Amino acid sequence: MKTSLINKLIVSIGLIALVLSGGCTKKFDEINTNPTQATPESVDPTFFVPTIQRYTFSPDREVWWRAQLIHADRFADHFRFGAAGSWWDDGLSYEYSPDYTDWYWRDYYTRIPASIVELLKTTRPEGSKPNKNVYAVGLILKAMYYQMLTDSFGDIPYSQVADGKTLSPQYDAQLDIYKQSITDLGDAITLIGDATIENAFVKVSTDLFYNGDMQKWKKLANSMRLRMGMRALGAQGADFAATAVIASLGQPLMTAITETAKVDKDPAQTGYLDDGYNNIWWVFGGEGSKWKLSQSLIHILSSTNDPRLAKYAKPIAGGAITYPKTTDAEYLAFIENLLNTEKVPFTKSTTANDIVYTIAANTYYLGQPARMNDKIKSLLVYNLFSDPSDYVIGNDYTQRSTPMMPGWAYSASEAQFYKALAILKGVGSGNAEQAYQDGIRLAMEQFSVTAGDIATFMGTNAAKLNGSAEENYEKVATQLWVSLYGHGFEAWAVARKTGYPKSVTQDIPNNTKIYAITSLGVGYPQRMQYSTNETQLNQTNVAAAISRQGPDKESTKIWWAK
């Protein structure tokens, strides 16, 4: 009988339960009981916590490569493929590929839900090791995990995943997942109450976010509720969204970078389990697997004199960039226009056979335009576009920079930006500009921008909400998107929800000489397609999801999208 890959998790859960119980029955004689065998009473359920945290927000190289970098970071338009020497042009992932999309679906569904189920089952009031604080942590992590998945695909298996009762789980509507997750977050806030680190975890060292500090977990739960409430706000049937937002604004949100939820990287660790971008850049595929920053991100940072520019990117290598005189004039015009638009000075000269553009070395920043195709790829020479900074990729693989960018789960700046957006939308009351500026300050502190540079930026027009209601909304949404550098899934979601930055969400030109026009067309990717395994082995439930939300295509907007 064919069954969904997801429900092979049930086997995993059964094996976990078998291990925890020692595989014995009450009829076994004591002599048949292994005294060293793990039992429900001896296993610390908090050890499920780092598994969920790491695999969700800082997975190993293969998952980071296929989920974050190939899809989320590029759909978010923070990073781009397709410079000369790259394995692919920048159309990769804008056309469904089971080799990459299926990997994200498979690894996230097979590694994480079983741990969530066991954590909640063990620590609930009737569980073998009841602990209301750890149970609250489980509810928060469950909401964070499924929010990322449902925002990527739309309707997904949720309520029947790993329930031990069904071989082919139903696909829950995104509205229902959001509604239940917001309820769970509220329950977690109530359960934590005034709990402190002393009565939280059996092993605080197993908490990769906060070392068992329950008041930080409480702020995370409330900030998550605000994120999900704001994302659902205005969506069909989301009558609960405004209530969630108002409730969140009435309780403490994250206000300091020490409250940011993240999985730190270990600079001393050389295995690919803890490397993320670093391993891909230095080890995985040489120049073929490298990437560049996007034109949209570099332009926004440069045009506002944002001090994060040097924290995010490196100046282009520049120097002499040579093209044969036989190069198509349209391609050369494209390159010249790009340099002029982004204010990168150059000189142009000719030799008997070549056209030479000379740019000052290591001086200017330039991002690569989105979705360049293989026809223009050879002109997108490596020295022309900005690499990620050492904070992102490390300075090499054996002597890596310290610190390294962590795996982001929820940044304190997000909470303040969402607070500003809520006020601008009229859902909450307060000073939107103050919340906006608090968000900018926290986002810059997160990337070690100096207090002086932050103060200078705060004096510019970019840090003030002095326009129309829509212009102010655009400013906040754009700064939220900028702040989510290295957290592609959230940056992509912000762009789809708000429509900003416009340079990210607008259609690409319908020019097949330059742009990769895939089955997506010229539009912006709205979701990822379901895995081949699901469409083949869980056909009835996939069909039900498609009938609700639309065709299983990247162009189909999910429930909350603008």
From TrEMBL:
Pfam families linked to this entry: SusD-like_2
UniProt superkingdom: Bacteria
Lipoprotein found in the keyword field: yes
SUPFAM superfamilies in the cross-refs: TPR-like
InterPro entries: SusD-like_2 (IPR041662), TPR-like_helical_dom_sf (IPR011990)
UniProt cross-references to PROSITE patterns, sorted A to Z: PROKAR_LIPOPROTEIN (PS51257)
Keyword hit for Lipoprotein: yes
Keywords: Lipoprotein
The protein's name: SusD/RagB family nutrient-binding outer membrane lipoprotein
Species this chain originates from: Solitalea agri
Lineage, uppermost ranks: Bacteria, Pseudomonadati, Bacteroidota, Sphingobacteriia, Sphingobacteriales
